[in-house]
């Protein structure tokens, strides 16, 4: 084996030393090869890429959801595709509740500053929605939700057709709805849609807007503002249950929450600036997208 050392004059000389085992003799010098820099772990690189995809979807979801609801139609499918191979469905649906709550909170704040809120109605809706969503999330952790999708498909088809045909739908408030009827409609809608949001989720914001327009008599802007508050309560109810169950994947939930909040802030400002006509068009687009999504789930999965 070739070895290098310096003699008494400091000159570099080459030594040849062998032992019976082929190793350098004691006292001889050896030079170890330089170590190459460590390569990033493949799993860590994959995680960064997953977070990037999820944050992009969360931003788009927050933007759309702040205007017409239905942001879960973007966020939830992407999350299921990205995280589905390695995580349980219940954990994924629990995780996306965190960015949904974040974006909805910021969007609701924007609406509160610019839209007059009917607080007795909103408070009753929020309280009902919270407990209904808690119950829906509890059921989600125990049973499958596939049997509800055909029903939602029919409902969405009717909503899309009605919105397209009725051109003045949501363009101006209908002031002839009696207050007791508004209260009953708010409680029933919050109970039904709160449970739906905790159990399935995607499209809840759009359904809430529809309920506030049809049964309570709001225009699109008023309906969007009140739907945000109610949706905030449904998210909080689900999160409370999932925290108890330990289902949330915080590594993905926190960066998604920041992205969704930014999208919600920008979306709410745009909705307030553009008004009812813009919201109606985007609402129709989102409802059709929801319809197509449920068609795929029902007929091709």
UniProtKB/TrEMBL annotation:
Membrane-spanning residues: 51-74, 80-98, 119-141, 147-165, 248-272, 278-296
Keyword check for Oxidoreductase: no
A GO term from the CC aspect: plasma membrane
Location(s) in or outside the cell: Cell membrane
Keywords: Cell membrane, Membrane, Transmembrane, Transmembrane helix, Transport
Major location category of this protein: membrane
Feature: compositional bias, Basic and acidic residues: 1-10
Region annotation (Disordered) ranges: 1-40
UniProt protein name: Probable membrane transporter protein
Biological source species: Flaviaesturariibacter aridisoli
Organism lineage string: Bacteria, Pseudomonadati, Bacteroidota, Chitinophagia, Chitinophagales
């Amino acid at each position: 084996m070739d070895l290098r050392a310096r003699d008494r004059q400091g000159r570099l000389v080459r030594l040849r030393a062998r032992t019976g085992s082929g190793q350098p003799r004691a006292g001889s010098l050896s030079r170890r090869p330089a170590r190459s820099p460590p390569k990033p772990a493949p799993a860590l690189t994959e995680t960064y890429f997953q977070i990037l995809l999820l944050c992009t979807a969360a931003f788009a979801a927050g933007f759309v959801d702040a205007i017409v609801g239905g942001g879960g139609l973007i966020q939830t499918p992407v999350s299921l595709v990205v995280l589905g191979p390695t995580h349980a469905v219940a954990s994924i649906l629990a995780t996306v509740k965190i960015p949904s709550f974040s974006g909805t909170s910021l969007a609701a704040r924007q609406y509160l500053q610019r839209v007059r809120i009917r607080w007795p109605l909103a408070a009753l809706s929020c309280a009902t929605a919270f407990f209904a969503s808690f119950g829906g999330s509890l059921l989600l952790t125990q049973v499958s939700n596939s049997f509800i999708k055909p029903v939602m498909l029919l409902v969405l088809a009717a909503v899309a057709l009605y919105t397209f045909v009725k051109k003045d739908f949501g363009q101006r408030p209908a002031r002839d709805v009696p207050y007791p009827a508004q209260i009953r409609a708010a409680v029933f809608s919050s109970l039904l849609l709160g449970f739906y949001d905790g159990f399935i989720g995607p499209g809840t914001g759009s359904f809430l807007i529809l309920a506030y327009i049809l049964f309570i008599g709001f225009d699109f802007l008023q309906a969007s503002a009140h739907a945000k508050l109610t949706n905030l309560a449904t998210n909080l109810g689900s999160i409370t249950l999932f925290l108890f169950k330990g289902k949330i994947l915080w590594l993905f939930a926190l960066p998604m929450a920041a992205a969704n909040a930014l999208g919600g802030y920008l979306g709410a400002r745009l909705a307030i600036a553009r008004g009812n006509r813009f919201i109606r068009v985007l609402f129709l687009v989102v409802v059709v997208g929801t319809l197509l999504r449920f068609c795929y789930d029902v007929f091709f999965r």
